[in-house]
């Protein structure tokens, strides 16, 4: 029994990281109709930026994290929106999807050629060791991941639901034209969404890189799983992204422990296929009608 | 008519001079190495080792008076790319090809060099590389069928484990190691409590570590490539795994220690080559490598370096640049450190291209490899 609980806690921790990335997918989709297939690379880049601040600039982790958030907001938020999304979005989703796929490859090659092709170590922000709760032993890293990811998610939900800016962002997500009529600065709200996505990516990088190691292709797996998680939970629901992420993380661990680790990597894909066939709008998603 | 004769004579003269210049010009050696992808750590180190040896050999006048022109090509850790590049190396009339390091890539690419009768050195350990009757294949490290029995004996006699869980990577290297180790453990009467396969380039080892813990085996054998080894060690530490963790060369490689940090402490491995070995010529290599690249070489750097010096020693023995004669001379060759210090350890090659030499048992203590025992060659080197 303790094994099972441990597996679920550990799965929820990794699922929480998937959820952070999946949240980025859903936020961008809702606010601007953008599907960002470079989301995994949006996690990889902050990992290397943080390493630069940590090792080259010799800054403490908290400061490196904050500075990385600023760099990410500028690069992965503002610049991404202005240089890629704004010029392409008027041509529809497909050109943008292709452009982000290209961006994903380009960024990987840039880091590979310009920084290093080898993996680099990244220290965990949490202490080593296990927390004993009765017979249950949970690592501080898993507990810390859960707490930090949970804090970010709760904070984001509070921001979206309890602040004027957050509500304005939701209004833009629900109906852009109506939001414009109400006098909401749509472009600014959309920009805020991109900036939030950049911060989520930095948090995901902080949590996942100690396990994955900093490498130019580290975003491939997390980007794909976050995309599956977003679809599974419902692409048009932020709560769906959370559910999808945690579901993928926990099921992966259960399959890995009780079936075989060899099948673990296929779990997200299987779940994705089942959801697409039987509930294409996702577990918590809402059907959207579109004119053809 | 007379003019025409002089012209012919001139052309023939130029031709002879050209051939003679080509024979005196640099000799082409090509490296097919993993400079990106999952094998980047192994390939980069191997390549750096070769480059250092080439630099030294050229500075000392080259081989038989000819300088070496070494070019490395990135296989991207992909067998199909390795095969295409092997063909390119053949087209460029390489005298010797170094690499790939990854067994899976080498098994695919070696057909090209064999067809062109070009000697091909590998850093791969998969047992089946040298079991295919290719006379142009030579190792720079032990074959798994030599290394695993040594390790199984250690697990039985020193660790006194009765059961072992195995985490291995599902590629040619990992499958070969897993098969050899299973056989070696069976021979020692040790039970395999869990057989856990993982993917090449896998980033999340939580399930594999959980499965190993659940098996309750007396020890864990980890046989994956460098980056995956580091990730596995980190995850095992995170989950509080407290049984002995044992592996082969890749588990305690320098890069693994760097990537895994504290999580590498306590890991034990049988290694063919280590810069922490007590031999003076290895200390010299360690210093030179660090001076050149500002980091400590792992076993792959030593493989590339010593492999290049094997090329030099055998070519000088043959007395000419002839791939066929080189391959013939390699079979049954013994190269001693006193004659060629660059080979780092006395080494003997058998008829399959497998090598035999001393090896080491190491333990990671305080982030450093510590040699706990020097194991003799399987057959005493005469």
List the defining traits of the structure above.
heterodimer; A: 292 residues; mainly alpha; 11 helices; 2 strands; 74% helix; B: 382 residues; alpha/beta; seven-stranded mixed beta sheet; 12 helices; 15 strands; 19% strand; globular
Structure, explained:
The complex is a heterodimer of chains A (292) and B (382). Chain A has helices at 2-32, 39-56, 61-89, 93-114, 140-162, 164-174, 176-181, 186-212, 219-233, 238-258, 267-278, and strands spanning 130-133, 136-139. With 292 residues, chain A is an all-alpha fold. In chain A, a hairpin with a 2-residue loop joins strand 1 and strand 2. The radius of gyration of chain A is 19 Å and the shape is globular. Chain B is α/β, with parallel strands linked by helices and 382 residues long. Chain B has twelve helices and 15 strands. Chain B has helices spanning 2-24, 40-59, 79-91, 103-115, 144-159, 172-187, 206-215, 226-238, 254-260, 280-293, 299-318, 323-330, and strands at residues 27-33, 68-74, 96-98, 120-122, 137-139, 163-169, 191-198, 219-223, 245-248, 268-271, 334-335, 347-349, 355-356, 359-365, 368-375. A seven-stranded mixed β-sheet of chain B has the order 7-6-8-9-10-14-15, with helices on both faces. In chain B, strands 2-1-3-4-5 form a five-stranded parallel β-sheet, sandwiched between helices. In chain B, strand 6, helix 6 and strand 7 form a beta-alpha-beta unit. In chain B, helix 2 (40-59) packs across helix 11 (299-318) and helix 11 (299-318) crosses helix 12. The termini of chain B are far apart. The chains are: A mainly alpha (292), B alpha/beta (382). Chains A and B meet through helix 1, helix 8 and helix 10 of A and helix 2, strand 7, helix 7, helix 8 and helix 9 of B.
């Amino acid at each position: 029994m303790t094994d099972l609980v441990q597996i679920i806690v550990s799965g929820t921790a990794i699922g929480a990281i998937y959820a952070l990335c999946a949240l980025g997918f859903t936020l961008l989709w809702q606010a601007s109709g953008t599907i960002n297939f470079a989301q995994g690379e949006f996690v990889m880049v902050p990992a290397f930026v943080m390493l630069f601040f940590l090792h080259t600039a010799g800054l403490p982790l908290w400061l490196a994290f904050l500075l990385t958030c600023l760099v990410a907001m500028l690069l992965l938020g503002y610049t991404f929106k202005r240089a890629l999304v704004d010029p392409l979005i008027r041509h529809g989703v497909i050109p943008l999807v292709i452009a982000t796929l290209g961006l994903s490859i380009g960024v990987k090659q840039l880091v590979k050629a310009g920084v290093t092709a080898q993996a680099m170590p990244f220290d965990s922000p949490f202490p080593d060791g296990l927390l004993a709760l009765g017979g249950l032993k949970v690592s501080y890293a898993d507990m810390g991941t859960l707490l930090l990811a949970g804090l970010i998610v709760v904070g984001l939900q509070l921001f979206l639901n309890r602040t004027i800016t957050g509500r304005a962002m939701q209004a833009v997500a629900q109906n852009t034209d109506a939001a414009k009529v109400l006098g909401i600065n749509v472009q600014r709200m959309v920009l805020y969404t991109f900036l939030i996505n950049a911060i989520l990516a930095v948090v995901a990088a902080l949590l996942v890189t100690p396990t994955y190691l900093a490498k130019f292709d580290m975003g491939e797996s997390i980007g794909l799983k976050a995309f599956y998680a977003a679809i599974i939970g419902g692409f048009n629901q932020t709560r769906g992204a959370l559910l999808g992420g945690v579901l993928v993380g926990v099921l992966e661990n259960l399959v890995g422990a009780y079936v075989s680790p060899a099948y673990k990597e296929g779990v997200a894909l299987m779940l994705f296929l089942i959801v697409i066939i039987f509930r294409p709008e996702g577990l918590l998603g809402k059907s959207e009608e579109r004119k053809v | 008519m007379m003019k025409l004769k002089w012209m012919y004579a001139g052309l023939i003269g130029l031709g002879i001079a050209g051939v003679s210049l080509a024979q005196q010009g640099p000799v082409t050696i090509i490296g097919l190495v993993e400079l990106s992808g999952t094998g980047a750590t192994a390939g980069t180190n191997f390549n750096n080792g070769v480059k250092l040896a080439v630099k030294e050999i050229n500075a000392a006048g080259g081989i038989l008076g000819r300088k070496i022109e070494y070019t490395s090509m990135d296989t991207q850790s992909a067998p199909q790319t390795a095969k295409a590049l092997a063909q390119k190396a053949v087209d460029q009339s390489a005298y010797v090809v170094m690499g790939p390091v990854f067994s899976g890539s080498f098994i695919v690419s070696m057909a090209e060099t064999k067809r062109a009768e070009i000697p091909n050195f590998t850093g791969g350990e998969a047992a089946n590389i040298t079991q295919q009757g290719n006379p142009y294949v030579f190792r720079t490290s032990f074959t798994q069928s030599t290394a695993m029995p040594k390790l199984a004996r250690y697990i039985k006699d020193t660790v006194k484990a009765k059961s072992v869980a195995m985490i291995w990577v599902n590629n040619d290297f990992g499958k070969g190691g897993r098969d050899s180790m299973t056989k070696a453990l069976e021979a020692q009467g040790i039970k395999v409590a869990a057989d856990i396969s993982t993917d090449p380039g896998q980033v999340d080892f939580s399930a594999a570590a959980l499965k190993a813990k659940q098996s309750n085996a007396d020890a864990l054998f980890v046989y994956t490539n460098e980056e995956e080894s580091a990730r596995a060690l980190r995850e095992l530490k995170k989950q509080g795994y407290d049984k002995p963790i044992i592996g082969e060369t890749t588990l305690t490689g320098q890069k693994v220690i760097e990537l895994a940090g504290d999580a590498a402490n306590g890991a034990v491995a049988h290694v063919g080559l280590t810069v922490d070995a007590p031999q003076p010529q290895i200390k010299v290599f360690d210093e030179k490598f660090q001076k050149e690249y500002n980091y400590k070489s792992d076993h792959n750097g030593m493989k590339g370096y010593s492999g290049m010096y094997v090329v030099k020693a055998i070519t000088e023995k043959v007395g000419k640049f002839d791939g066929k004669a080189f391959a013939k001379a390699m079979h049954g060759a013994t190269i001693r450190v006193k004659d060629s210090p660059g080979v780092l350890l006395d080494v003997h090659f058998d008829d399959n291209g497998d090598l035999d030499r001393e090896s080491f048992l190491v333990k990671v203590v305080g982030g450093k490899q510590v040699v706990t025992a020097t194991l003799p060659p399987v057959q005493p080197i005469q």
